[in-house]
Amino acid sequence: MKKLFIVTGEYSGDIHASHVVEALRSINPDIEIEGIGGENLRHAGVKLFSDQKKMGAVGLSPKIIFDHFTLGKRVVDYLTKEYKPDLVLLIDYGVFNLNISKFLKRAGIKVFYYIPPQVWASRKWRINTIKKNIDEVLCIFPFEKELYESYGIKTHYCGHPLVSQLSQKASRDEFFEKHGLDKNKKLVSIFPGSRVFELKYLMNVFIKTAENLQKKHPDLQFCVSHAPNLADNVYNKYLKNCPFKVIKGENQALLSVSDALILASGTVALEACLYQTPMIIAYRGPWLFYFIYLLVRCIKRVSLPNIIADKYIVPEILQGDVNVNKIAYEIEKLLFNKDYRAKNIQELGDVKALLSDKISSQEVAKVIAEAI
Question: CATH homologous superfamily for 3-159+357-371?
């Protein structure tokens, strides 16, 4: 019986991995699969060596570093001395996965990497570690294939997993009725991020922008998306008497029915792009983090739609430029300049077309099935 081991580190990786498992079992029902993951992999019938709780922590505290180190040692020992899989599939979670890949390579275990580190965005030197230790990269952006192959790395473009996993566009009428929104007013939705420091640096300026816009344009209404990974008490700390409706756990529906979006950067921008909902990206954080980012970045664009298109489609307002006036100006253009809005929607559609030709999990499953 063939054996596969999957390593994920975060909730999104667990979801992507579960879809790969389902697709793989439809090709080879007898394959034995174990891994590090969460509830999605468990529900897919995967025996978990460890769950993701310790891996999901963010930061550089001694405890977090120690937990990652000890888990890495345990999993390497298990894979090299006991389980001895035919293939290990690493998914995302670059720092941990690139470290254990060195030891797996030395042990002669075949290693594939799905959703590899974004070396094209920052810390490009990591590509040398990938070349040394990864047998095949399963990439999710079309431009990644050319980059990895230019370094002599075997690469398969699988398509982006979001394309097939994204929910259908919600019914605007039903959504508005459910949440008591006015069907005769345009909706602008605010996504201030899913990390506490993002709320600290962005929530206040986003809310103030919305208040100013609503005074100027009474035909506008606003909603705030509550990231499902943050507890209510954490999120509410930064809302400070927010006058707008807060919606939790319906991110994709909210993205799909909005007329425009104010977003912190992240995967949410790609989700919005796939719904062809006009957006602006506004992002800031601690200045030290920003200066470090400037040192290690390889490209100037921040949002995924702009990176994929290799041009500016989505307005990006960063760090010291993040203020009420600049955000409001860009939102007004997207809402009230008809030609600009139509061009923006068409260009978001062009990006969507670049990503829509493959079902990612099925591509990954086919490559793995052939390899083992």
Answer: Glycogen Phosphorylase B; (3.40.50.2000)
